[in-house]
Amino acid sequence: MAQNPIEIILLQQWASMMTVPIWITDAAGELLYFNEPTEDLIGVRFDEAGEMPASILSERFSLCNVDGTPVADHDRPLMIALHKLQPAQRELQMMDDAGQKKIVSDTAIPIIGEGDRPLGALVILWESGDSHS
Amino acid sequence: MGRAGVETAGYGGDTSCVEVRGDNGEVVVLDAGSGLARLNAESCPPRVDVLLTHLHMDHIQGLGFFQPLFREDVEVHLWGPVSSTMDLGERLTRYLSPPLFPVRLRDLPKLEFHDVRPGSFTVGTLTITADMVIHPGPTLGYRVESNGSSLAYLPDHEPALGSRQFPKPPEWTSGYDLCRDIDTLIHDFQYTPEEYVSRQGWGHSSMPHALAFADQVGARRFVTFHHDPDHDDTQLDEFHQVEGRSFELIPGRGGLTLEV
User: Fold this and answer.
1) Does B134 lie at the interface with A, CB-CB under 8 angstroms?
2) How far is CA B242 from CA A98, A117, B112, B202, B257, in A?
3) What is the predicted pLDDT for the residue at A2?
4) In chain A, what residues touch B162 (CB-CB under 8 Å)?
5) Of A30, A32, B19, B235, whose CB neighbour count within 10 A is largest?
6) What is the C-alpha separation between B160 and B196, in angstroms, rounded?
7) In angstroms, what CA-CA distances link A35 with A39, A111, B216?
8) Which residues in chain A are closer than 8 Å to B81, comparing Cβ atoms?
């Protein structure tokens, strides 16, 4: 596997020390990394998961709108960050691996490296509401 | 190392600067530390390319004393990392202008700037690949290849920054692609493990990290570089007593000449 750009490597090191779920994708939306709090949510270790599109994580979380309706692809913060190179945030409902429904803020930030190179996106899930089983 | 004196006479007291000569006489200079003044010999070709890894003072301080910059008959090309704020010329002007220096860059006769993005370019028969590496501020490492031989130059590099363990998998290791299967690696060898504890984030390697990196990338030869100014010849001799390595270890010294 080729070495990741230095900006991605530095973000991965930072994300590995954070206590909120964070994942990192490349510019094509392929999942490059998710941290331990994400592992706790989905019940899969990153080292065991292998390469996968980031959309798999969204499916794993069963992310949908707060009213339970599906989120259109173009409204997903990750897609906005990747395709419009803009930060985006949206309140979503999530079901974790234990079947708990939670309201989370899904924040996506485009990663634009030196020389204005679009390198991918960083996604953070902020837990912001009560849990419901 | 930036500390000239009798106690460092063996390893040398100049800051980072390496001259590379290609098969067709091309001259590429890696960084413009104080040793750059030695390239003022009459053998200087009509074109010189100076590749800057970054713009910290110890890597550019030789520019003001580089005679070819002031000659009408020598074309000097300065290459350095692209920045999102100012171009290379504007950033270097901060140093090469009054009051820090008496001459302005714009007054020099044949000088051309190149903002380098990660990727490859050629200088004569030399193929040069640049990539960002871990060091404070935009910093490049360079790989120079010619006729199947290769040299990598990462004088300021902290690949273990933020790592719980090192080495890490190649895809998460700064500088890995630049240095993979390299014939000659010139790499940061600045701190003892004890020193590194209080200097993490300063952008340099501990000696064990540098050795582990050389081993990981499959370097055939490792030339240690960017010695700490607090280390004298006696200490540096001790630091190079390393056993069980997979590569030839060459203590980097001022004036050292190698064929790649």
Assistant:
1) yes
2) 52, 40, 43, 24, 22
3) 85
4) 10, 13-14, 16-17
5) A32
6) 11
7) 6, 17, 24
8) 114
Residues of A whose CB is below 8 A from B133: 6
CB contact under 8 A, A17 and B162: yes
* Tokens read off for B134: 């871990």
Q: A-chain residues within 8 Å CB-CB of B176?
A: 3
B173 touches chain A (CB under 8 A): yes
Output the pTM of the full model. Answer: 0.89
List the structure tokens of A30: 């392929």
Structure confidence at residue A56 (pLDDT)? 75
| β-strands A117-127, A88-95 pairing | unpaired
Question: A133 falls in which pLDDT band (50, 70, 90)?
Answer: very low
Q: Is ipTM over 0.95?
A: no
Q: Do B173 and A3 touch (CB under 8 A)?
A: yes
Check pLDDT > 90 for residue B10: yes
Using CA atoms, how far apart are residues B176 and B213, in angstroms rounded to an integer?
8
CA distance linking residue B85 with residue A76, whole number of Å: 31
Cβ atoms of residues A54 and A123 within 8 Å: yes
Establish if A86 touches chain B: CB-CB under 8 angstroms: no
Per the CB < 8 A criterion, the answer to whether B192 and B207 are in contact is: yes
Contact list in B for residue A118 (CB cut-off 8 A) is none
Residue A41: pLDDT over 80: no
- Write out residues 48-87 of B within 8 Å (CB-CB) of A: 81-84
Please calculate the CA angle B155-B159-B164 and round it to the nearest 5 degrees: 155
Strand ordering across the sheet containing B47-51: B18-21, B27-30, B47-51, B75-81, B111-116
Adjacent-strand bridge partners of B113: B78
Q: Is the Cβ pair A113, B132 closer than 8 Å? A: yes
Residue B222: which H helix or E strand, with range?
strand B221-225
Averaged pLDDT of chain A: 87
Report the sign of the C-alpha dihedral through residues A21, A27, A30, A33, in that order.
negative
CB-nearest partner of A14 from B82, B162, B173:
B162
